[in-house]
Specification:
Blueprint (H helix, E strand, L loop, with lengths): L3 H6 L2 H5 L1 H11 L4 E11 L6 E12 L10 E5 L3 E5 L5 H8 L24
Antiparallel strand pairs: 1-2, 2-3, 2-4
């Protein structure tokens, strides 16, 4: 399949098909894992920042059919702390993470479809 970067550079007609290409690609994927966890949510008074804490994580293998989720493949004692905010609020977001007693990394970046520039399907 053609890289999205090529589609964007080929004009408006091709760009209109991007959503359809992504949808078809996602339909071709098969789930292989189900994960569950407990979560707690916190939000700043101005609603610009949200903290999510995930814990008690469990993992189950997913088959093409007959999933009864009786066979757990793993349990994690790790805790995941996520700070979510818009990119325009990044400066204050970094000062918030400096107050946490743990090291934070940016390992997850959310983006809209119109922000994609180099993803290959």
């Amino acid at each position: 399949m053609m890289p999205l970067v090529s589609i964007f550079s080929q004009g408006e007609n091709k760009q209109k098909n991007v959503a359809g290409l992504i949808k078809n690609y996602l339909k071709s994927l098969k789930p292989s894992l189900l994960n569950c966890c407990r979560r707690m949510y916190f939000q700043s008074a101005d609603h610009k920042y949200r903290i999510t804490i995930g814990f008690d994580m469990e993992y189950y293998r997913v088959a093409p059919a007959n999933n009864y989720f009786l066979s757990k493949t793993g349990k994690s004692n790790h805790t995941i702390l996520e700070l979510k905010y818009l990119e325009k609020d990044n400066d204050k977001g970094e000062s918030i993470t400096s107050l946490f007693p743990v090291r934070m990394t940016k390992s997850s970046i959310m983006f809209r479809v119109d922000d994609i520039s180099t993803v290959t399907l």
